[in-house]
Design brief:
heterodimer, A: MetI-like fold, 72% helix, B: MetI-like fold, eight-stranded antiparallel β-sheet, five-stranded antiparallel β-sheet, 17 helices, 15 strands
């Protein structure tokens, strides 16, 4: 009787928990591993394990003050680049979206189709051309040439503006036009309608797209790699993957600590906005 | 003035001052191409914001400029580059290359090795002066200057008064003669100084001597090549040769190609090489095939795991659902470059934990431990495994969403008609699910097709394909292969060739997008818009 009950439960629920737990282990293992290793005493790769024998914060301390590994400079660079590019991105994207959503003009359809087409080709595909372009710009205007953050920010700006304005436009379409018409009757200009009515109402999508763009730039490797050659200007993705690689096994503890610091804020941000992010991504891909 | 007008004028002022700064610079660099672009952009901006006729453009222009400059234009530019020989040795324009060639200098053999006494003096301003005792008729004196100052003429003069009647050096009071010790202390600065004798010849400190005077040497810097624009030839002043224009963007002196060359358009040469050169075509075929394989299996594996999990959890009254779901999101929440790094540690063939876990299995079957990343099969498996870990949460999320949006009535109707749960899954749930998420699957395919970060950071494309003409490995996908060709392969920069591979990538992505577009249109017709 008991056995019968158990098999019934297993058929109904038990196997689900079994599969569920297997994947919980698979999902969590690498994450826990890097966290515990970042605190582990003597954690080079050879004697690393999930639960270390003793704990220390020395790997975190090792990230501070070594001029050859300016880890916190990398972090700061990354936040700066992703922050500025993300902000300008949604700002310019919102402007463009407003025109496409609310103004009637010749070439609107062509403009929209261009946006859809362009977003299919991520900008990094043409990285050879971007490299050569900025290689030449650097001769003329060193401030935005190769090796500068400004140039990199400009490239990131171009890269996701199509995607963002397309999604913001989609959101603005759902805001009833009766609102702007009421404002227009009250004598509001286009710009006033934009920043008093349409833009505030689009805030949810704007915030989410900022977060998505920020995370995207934070995690980018290829464009940062072709742009930045000076270790002091690296982003964190570059820094960790270039500087620590010389002695991967022995630097393992520092790598783990650096990883934890770099990943935590992004993971928190992601989990906080998880529903909207996945919603936004899905909507974008379906429509694109 | 209204606030918006003020902002507009402020923006225009900043923008135009930037343009005014750039225009003379581009002219100075003779960069006509950039100048054209700058003029077009500034014209567009000023027209848009100074008149009231192009209202919508006011909103669109700022974003559009970045989109056109850094997404659309590079695509076109990359196509242009694919028709050039732009590569190491052909990086410069013709004019830059000629300037570089004309800057080259050489030293005549008869001047090498002649040494003479050199005295180093200092005046009250602590500027250095050289006194070179070449021969009795040439006691040359003058200010010692740095390379940057060569153009301001400070030629040495013959100063017999610096010697007394016995032929010994006698220094006037306003100068101080440096001792050997002081010379050594200042040696790094002194190394860079020279006394100019004429346009092409200078005196430099050669050897600091503790006993007696230090020695100097004559260095002559004669122009090695001269360029004659009318005839478009280069003249080799060393060997007295005329060098003619080659057809590869080089001058050729007596059958020898002169570096640096410059970039020229070479027609379809790069494409020909892709198609015809076996040592290039072979690896490219391997890479292309693997790129499709990788993208396909990456989507298949993540989709399968995602679907398995969403079906498993899609059961009312199952406990801990929320916990399961929030844990499955985690791999997706961590930046890819971090997770890849962790897996690089876990899979490490020598010290990694994965091989440690499998040690009993290896022993049981008496097989060698897997040599992760060092063989073709293990590297490819590793890439797919890591990708599965990174990508399954996304598939889990979208399949969960799709499952929940399938109308319950359909499944209940099937149950009434006597369908088993397996039948209703494969006949109803699965097809409907595919319809609603197939555009996302194609999107995931396109993403993985160009998943540079994973490949480059996990395996760098390795292990290498032996016998290839270029740096390429068995896990390289097209985009990482292009990266190696262009920048990181360690065999020079091959921009032209890399750009031609980029063209191939563009064509394939275009094809994928077209398929996606038509497919979703067709599905909509068949199943209606879900």
């Amino acid at each position: 009787m008991e056995i019968y009950k158990f098999t019934n439960w297993f058929k109904e629920f038990g196997w689900r928990h079994l599969v569920g737990l297997i994947f919980v282990t698979i999902s969590l293992y690498p994450i826990l591993y890097v966290i515990t290793n970042s605190f582990a005493d003597f954690a080079n790769l050879q004697n690393s394990k999930l639960i270390p024998d003793s704990f220390t914060t020395k790997h975190y301390a090792s990230l501070i003050g070594d001029p050859l590994i300016p880890y916190f400079k990398w972090l700061l660079n990354t936040y700066k680049i992703a922050g500025i590019a993300g902000f300008l991105n949604v700002l310019l994207g919102t402007f463009a979206a407003y025109a496409f959503a609310r103004l009637k003009f010749k070439g609107r359809r062509v403009g929209l189709i261009t946006l859809v087409l362009v977003q299919m080709f991520p900008s990094f595909l043409a990285f050879v051309a971007i490299y050569l372009l900025f290689f030449q710009i650097g001769d003329v205007a060193p401030l935005i040439g190769l090796g500068t953050h400004t140039g990199l920010i400009m490239v990131y700006l171009g890269g996701s503006i199509g995607f963002n304005s397309w999604l913001i436009k989609g959101f603005m379409d759902t805001i009833p036009t009766s609102l702007d018409e009421a404002a227009k009757v009250d004598g509001a200009t286009d710009f006033q309608i934009f920043y008093k009515v349409v833009a505030p109402l689009s805030r949810p999508i704007i915030v989410v797209l900022f977060v998505i763009t920020f995370i995207g730039i934070y995690s980018d490797y290829i464009l940062a790699a072709i742009f930045l050659k000076d270790a002091n200007l690296y982003t964190v993705a570059l820094g960790i993957n270039i500087v620590f690689m010389d002695d991967f096994a022995n630097e393992w503890g520092s790598i783990a600590a650096a990883s934890v610091i770099a990943a935590t804020p992004i993971a928190v941000l992601f989990i906080f906005f998880q529903k909207q992010i996945t919603g936004g991504l899905t909507a974008g891909s379906v429509k694109g | 003035m209204k606030f918006s007008t003020f902002v507009r004028y402020l923006f225009l002022a900043v923008f135009n001052s930037f343009i005014i700064y750039l225009v003379p610079v581009t002219i100075a660099f003779e960069s006509w191409f950039l100048l054209t672009i700058i003029i077009i952009i500034s014209f567009l901006i000023n027209i848009t914001y100074l008149t009231n006729r192009l209202k919508p453009l006011k909103w669109i222009t700022p974003g559009m400029i970045f989109l056109l400059s850094f997404v659309v234009f590079p695509a076109a530019y990359s196509f242009y580059v694919s028709f050039t020989n732009w590569s190491t040795g052909h990086i410069l324009t013709k004019q830059q290359a000629i300037e570089r060639l004309e800057d080259m200098t050489f030293t005549n053999d008869n001047q090498k090795g002649v040494e003479f006494d050199l005295y180093i003096l200092q005046d009250q301003d602590l500027d250095f002066y050289f006194l070179a005792d070449l021969d009795p008729d040439k006691l040359l004196f003058g200010k010692a200057i740095k390379k940057e100052e060569y153009s301001q003429v400070f030629y040495a003069t013959h100063e017999p008064s610096f010697k007394d009647l016995n032929g010994n050096i006698s220094i006037p009071d306003e100068y101080y003669l440096l001792s050997a010790k002081e010379q050594i202390a200042n040696s790094s600065e002194l190394q860079d100084l020279a006394l100019l004798i004429d346009k092409n010849t200078r005196v430099q400190l050669y050897n600091i001597s503790v006993f007696g005077a230090s020695s100097g040497r004559l260095l002559s810097a004669q122009q090695k090549y001269s360029y004659y624009a009318e005839a478009d030839i280069l003249y080799d002043n060393v060997n007295n040769l005329e060098c003619n224009l080659g057809n590869r963007g080089n001058f050729i002196c007596d059958g020898e190609t002169i570096d640096p060359g410059w970039r020229i358009t070479v027609g379809t040469e790069n494409y020909k090489r892709i198609v015809e050169d076996e040592r290039f075509r072979g690896p490219l075929r391997i890479v292309t095939f693997w790129t499709f394989q990788f993208a396909f299996f990456a989507v298949l594996a993540t989709f399968f795991i995602g679907l398995l999990l969403s079906v498993t959890l899609n059961k009312e009254s199952l406990k801990f659902q929320k916990i399961y779901r929030s844990i499955y999101i985690l791999p997706y929440a961590i930046p890819g470059f971090i997770s890849i790094l962790v897996f690089k540690g876990l899979l490490n063939p020598d010290f990694g934990l994965v091989n440690e876990w499998f040690a009993p299995v290896y022993e049981l079957f008496n097989i060698e431990p897997i040599n992760w990343f060092r063989t073709k099969a293990s590297s490819r498996t590793a890439v797919l495994l890591v990708n599965a870990w990174l990508g399954f949460p996304y598939m889990f999320l979208i399949t969960t969403g799709a499952l929940q949006s399938i109308p319950k009535e359909l499944l209940e109707a099937a149950k009434v008609d006597g369908a088993t749960s397996r039948q209703s899954f494969w006949r109803i749930t699965f097809p409907l699910l595919l319809v609603s998420i197939s555009p996302l699957l194609i999107g995931a395919f396109a993403f993985n097709f160009n998943n540079f970060t994973l490949i480059f950071l996990l395996t760098s494309g390795g292990p290498p394909i032996v016998g290839a003409d270029v740096a390429v490995g068995y896990t390289d996908i097209l985009i990482s292969f292009t990266y190696d060709l262009a920048i990181a392969g360690g065999r020079g920069y091959q921009f032209g060739l890399a750009a031609s591979v980029t063209t191939i990538i563009f064509l394939i992505v275009l094809l994928i997008s077209a398929i996606s577009f038509r497919y979703s249109k067709r599905l909509e017709r068949v199943y209606g818009n879900l």
